[in-house]
Design brief:
- It comes from Muribaculum intestinale.
- The protein has about 525 residues and is mainly β.
- It has 3 domains: about 170 residues, Immunoglobulin-like; about 90 residues, Sandwich (Immunoglobulin-like), CATH 2.60.40; about 220 residues.
- Helices cover about 5% and strands about 35% of the residues.
- The strands form 9 sheets. Strands 24, 25, 26, 27, 29, 31, 36 and 38 form an 8-stranded antiparallel β-sheet that branches. Strands 7, 9, 11, 13, 14 and 15 form a 6-stranded mixed β-sheet that branches.
- The chain starts with a strand and ends with a strand.
- About 35% of the residues are buried.
Length: about 525
């Protein structure tokens, strides 16, 4: 019987010699592959030298071994154990899990990490034993585009072998993700940051034709933009290329940069989610239930100072019917989330544009995407309302694909509390009726898709998430109001006001994702 640390295996009966096993013990064993072994010593000087240095070989050996201690791991080709790239999460490194390898040995043995400590990404159990047994190898998924490995010293019968045992894990394919691949810059000039996450080395290739564009790299963060106003009378576009190096030099990822010919644009690049309650930035975009580790949503009345100071003037209000509720409007990573999962509605009001002189006719456009859970379940509540606070008249609305839009001006009066319209969301009173309004429905393809768009970038390019309306008579006092609830809850007939706590009568929830607000003079 032999004991393997942690448990006992009755696999192989070993009868060790009572004299020096390097000289006297003789036994015949089965065909061995990849054996750590000692050759027999014929002289005392050779014995001393062998004990001082030790010899190991890894080859096929079909012979009778005469009294030699041996250590053999079945399936370890050339003393290398190969692990799959997918690996196994550490919380699943149970005793019965991992890759199992049979140990053949007739003596005590130890496996010791060459660097002194076990690498965090893998584990071997047990690290020592006596005779035969089972070794278990564990490794987490390898995110890198290169093979990774760990080496271990092998001690047989107290003597270290001159060849190491190697655990090697296959690489992942080349992967590169961006926090944004389509940047919109202000007409007056602005800058945006893009975080690059890759498992291979890369370089930036600027657009040589766009002399107006600046690109700066700080480790994995790119700052892209311009301080030059766009007076061309039209949008101007450039392309920045992220290109792999070395064996990945053929892999390229474009970033499209457009400087708008618009009087106002906001892509909410100033809007982020702190990882905890501090101002740490979160660089993991995702539109499902988890945006980053820590606080996933930050309600507008709880925005931290860096967000408040960067906010150009967006505000949210509590309901006029239930002043103690809400406002259920949240910052996420570079976009706004309306509503909650339990019928609470969200709302937001755009900044007034001080640069407008007199009254103008303008086109207001934005992106509004449907909410999808982490399990890719689309929420049925797809209705939202847009109205005007201050001067202006809605003359035309536009939606794409299966999304729809209709003007309801003259058919409604939405109770609103303009005096409570502050970032802190202080309760106001019903002091105005919004009569210029339009109703929109998001189409079936205007939703974020967890499976096909895991980084949350493509949803904003989908035509069914893009909406617009023409506003005549817009002034420096005009603001645009977005309300993510259905018509039944606006209580327009009674004038009692709308309740953000019960934002939907038709559906359980009506969450929306809001981004890319733009105003262009017609």
């Amino acid at each position: 019987m032999v004991e393997l640390q942690g448990y006992q295996r009755y696999i192989y009966r070993c009868t060790p010699a009572k004299v020096n096993p390097l000289i006297a013990h003789t036994t015949t064993i089965m065909k061995l592959r990849h054996i750590f072994r000692f050759p027999g010593m014929l002289a005392i000087s050779a014995l001393i030298a062998g004990m001082a240095a030790g010899v190991t070989s890894c080859k096929e050996d079909d012979e009778t071994i005469s009294g030699e201690p041996y250590f053999y791991i079945e399936g370890a080709e050339d003393c290398v154990v190969h692990m799959d790239v997918k690996g196994l999460a550490q919380d699943k490194w149970a005793f019965g899990a991992g890759d199992h390898y049979v140990v053949r040995s007739n003596c005590p043995w130890k496996i010791i990490p060459v660097d002194g400590e076990m690498p965090e990404w893998m584990k071997i159990y047990p690290l020592e034993g006596n005779g035969e047994g089972i070794l278990r190898f564990y490794a987490v998924s390898n995110p890198m585009a290169q093979i990774r490995s760990a080496e271990f010293r092998v001690i047989i019968n107290g003597i270290e072998m001159d060849r190491h045992l190697v655990l090697s894990q296959n690489p992942s394919g080349p992967v590169l993700t961006l926090t944004a691949d389509n940047l919109m810059l202000q007409q007056s000039g602005s800058f945006s940051d893009v975080i690059v996450t890759a498992n291979y080395d890369w370089e930036v290739v600027p657009d040589q034709t766009a002399t107006w564009l600046s690109v700066e790299r700080n480790e994995n963060k790119l700052t892209i933009g311009t301080d030059e106003p766009n007076h061309s009378g039209a949008e101007r576009t450039a392309t920045v290329i992220i290109r792999g190096t070395g064996e990945n030099a053929t892999i390229t990822t474009p970033i499209t940069v457009t400087q708008l010919d618009a009087i106002f644009f906001d892509d909410f690049g100033w809007c982020f989610t702190p990882m905890n309650t501090t101002a740490d930035f979160c660089d993991e975009p995702n539109l499902d239930a988890v945006v980053c580790w820590g606080d996933q949503n930050l309600r507008i009345d709880k925005w931290i100072d860096p967000v408040k100071s960067a906010n150009p003037g967006w505000t949210g209000v509590r309901g006029t019917k239930n002043k103690s509720a809400g406002p259920y409007t949240y910052s996420r990573h570079n976009y706004i989330l309306f509503g909650t999962s339990n019928k609470c509605a969200g709302n937001i009001c755009s900044p007034a544009i001080a640069s407008i002189e007199g009254a103008i006719n303008a086109t207001v456009s934005w992106s509004m995407a449907g909410f999808t859970s982490a399990k890719n379940a689309k929420e049925k509540g797809n209705e939202f309302w847009v109205s005007i606070l201050g001067p202006g008249r809605i003359t035309e609305v536009t939606a794409n694909g299966s999304s729809t839009a209709e003007i309801v001006t003259g058919l409604c009066a939405i109770p609103y509390n303009s005096t409570g319209n502050t970032p802190e969301g202080k309760a106001g009173v019903h002091d105005i009726d919004l009569t210029e309004a339009a109703r929109f429905y998001i189409g079936k393809d205007g939703y974020f898709d967890v499976d096909t768009d895991p980084t949350g970038l493509e949803v904003w390019k989908n035509p069914e998430s893009m909406f617009s309306m023409k506003v005549d008579g817009m002034t420096a006092e005009t603001r645009i109001v977005f309300i993510a609830c259905d018509a039944d809850n606006l209580t327009m007939e009674t004038g009692e006001g709308w309740d953000v706590r019960e934002g939907n009568s038709k559906y359980k929830s009506n969450r929306k994702l809001f981004d890319n607000f733009k105003v262009v003079e017609n």
